[in-house]
Amino acid sequence: MGLAVGISAALVITMLVSYEFGFDRFQAHPERIFRVVTDIQMGSVQGHNATVPGALSQAAQELTGIDRIVPMLRMDMGTMSVQIDQANGAIKTLSADQVIFTDANYFQLIPYKWLFGGNISQVLKNPFQVVLSQRSAEKYFPRQPLSSVVGQHITYNGLMLTVSGVVADLTDPSDLEAKEFISLQTLNKLGAADQATLNSWDDWSLSLYLQLAPGTAPQQIEHLLNNIFTEHQSSNDPRKISLHLQPLHEVHFDSRYETPGIHIADKSSLYALLAIASFLLLLGSLNYINLTTAQASKRAKEVGIRKTNGSSRQQLIIQFLGETFIVTLLATIFSLLLCPFLLKLFSSFLPPGLTLDFLWKGQTIGYLSLLVISVTFFAGCYPAIVLSGFNPVHALKDQSRLLLGQSRQLVLRKGLTIAQFTIAQFFIILTLIISKQVYYVLHTNMGFQQEAIISFSIPNKSHRAALKQSIRALPGVAKVSTGFVAPAYIGAAFSDIIFNNGKEALKFTPQVRTGDEDYFDVYQLQLIAGRKASASDSVRELMINKAFMHELGYKNPTDVLGKLVHYGRDKSLVPIVGIMQDFHTQNLHAPISPLIFGVEPGQTFHVRLAEQTNAAEDWQQTISAIRKSFKKIYPEASFDYTFVNQQIAKFYEKERATTQLLNWATGLSIFISCLGLLGLVIFTTNSRTKELGIRKILGASISNLVLLLSKDFIRLIIIAFSIAAPIGWWAGHEWLKDFAYKTSINWWLFLIGIIGMVGVALAVLAIQTFKAARANPVDSLRDE
């Protein structure tokens, strides 16, 4: 059981780590593929962006040393729907799936298998073309052969496109796996805002990948790109902006350039997982050693008889190693049976592409074979050497004297037990610290109302006012607003601001939020000076938060009121009319950032539900009524809502998953450590059988004997705690450094850890020591 737990943990964690490190390893020459990213320095504030100005893609065409330039624009799936004309004249509406705007170079960079369509270099050359993956094609055109999909029409948010090709879905993990590919040139046929995505030096929406020519140094291309950008950067921009070539193998692990929709793995977490797997596997092996040698007294006569009948020590070692191999093989088979359960248990922690199919890959089978051999050798060598080394005369005559003579083994077992409980208590302390921080961030006041608020998007702006009025009239609705995203959002939205302080024009890039005149009431945002901006169809007045006020160089809120700033694509002058109280726009890893707010309706609805006696049931009734109002105006669109507090909780999915993983690692380590403790107790009670018998005859009670046997083991646990406590404090302190706002590491966390561990250990001790203390002393004293 101990081995199976250790092997199961090692197998699942190795599957996860192998999967994460396997991202984007299948391209031809991946070492020559880079993503262009942006680093921004503004005073003491550092920013990072995974996108670049659209015009950079065109300017890079002039450079030598680049084999392939691949621009990409990811689409927000929250508001994108697809309409398909049916044969009977009806229109089917579905949600889009991982849509990007790109060109044919994308299919040269990523080795998609081409199923149907024309020349790969021509399929996305013209505007209004789209290539579908096999999964998307089958979703949009079910029961049709894929060959008939090419040439058919699809409408994305009112934009009609022609299918020019179908590609097979990728089978290897990749961060570049899109499902639907629209011609990048389509943007040039749309409005000015979309054209700016490709042609502007101020629109930072485009992702850009480069495949360098053989022998080209990335530093050389990086230098040339920065020279091009500097030529087009405004001279009054106070920001220090530099472009950087990020190797493809780092895209999956660098959270500084996180992109919505792309899963980012943390290398330190993966290495920590490997350490956990190694510890659990080590604990399982150590327990096998402890339990096997603790039961040596039962096999001493067997060894003596075998040696007397002519067995060599080598034969005995092979026998015991063979037994260990069989046990390890059975444990491995059992661990394979546990894997589906463990994968389901850790589904929230595992990436969506990791499935049971990974078990049957050649590398996994090879890993398991190596694991069985390694564990057999490691766990079996010491017991085999110990058991085969028994003196046959002593083994046949006096087993207890044989065991009493092995004091060095007892010292080793105590050392192993301390090591096991050190690991277990380290996990306990770290779990308590991380759990406390997760509770803290989930219950910290973000500076705005987040409870009982739902948000959803509408497909277009038509009938927006009518829907708002309809929802406002519902009895279960307290407030309703339309605008941009919620105050705190998993992504980031920025806008350039130019402010003249009387000496020079300075450029800033604060975060931006917009909403209509009711947005403040829905989220209960607070003003500390001035007034709310006037209602308008476009932003004509601005409010800023205290953080931006300080960045502008003002300490008194009234001093900044009435100041003019250049805002928007046309850089028109708008006044600052209000100062807002600061609130968190992102998770608590980051400090509160400068922000501007403009009053402007949008396509996202924010609805605060009324307080109810039976909240869950009444809210569902209200949401059903909102859905009916939505469907009445947009019958073909999908009504997808989320609670704002649930969106905020998603900020900390990684931390919550880490807590869940540590909970299980802690439980498993305690379980395995208690097995080790049980092995040590069995060994000790077997070696002290006669002592216990004599003490009992001389008047010792069962409670005296239990206390006698237990105090030594409790001492081991306290020694382990004294080692684990400072290590756990250091690890927790280092982990908390990633948060700008964090909880404290209290002394009572360590007290809970030691009390819990001692309690569990006492329960294990009581079973075996009570059994030994109750034994008839006559049996132990006359046994020869």
TrEMBL record:
Q: How does it sit in the membrane?
A: Multi-pass membrane protein
Q: Chief location of this protein?
A: membrane
- MacB-like periplasmic core domain location is 2-226
**TM stretches of this protein:** 270-289, 316-345, 365-390, 411-434, 661-684, 705-727, 747-767
| Family matches, as InterPro entries | ABC3_permease_C, MacB_PCD, Macrolide_Exporter_MacB
The entry's keywords = Cell membrane, Membrane, Transmembrane, Transmembrane helix
Q: Report the superkingdom from the record.
A: Bacteria
Q: Which PANTHER family match?
A: ABC-TYPE MACROLIDE FAMILY EXPORT SYSTEM PERMEASE COMPONENT 2, MEMBRANE COMPONENT OF TRANSPORTER-RELATED
Q: What is this protein called?
A: ABC transporter permease
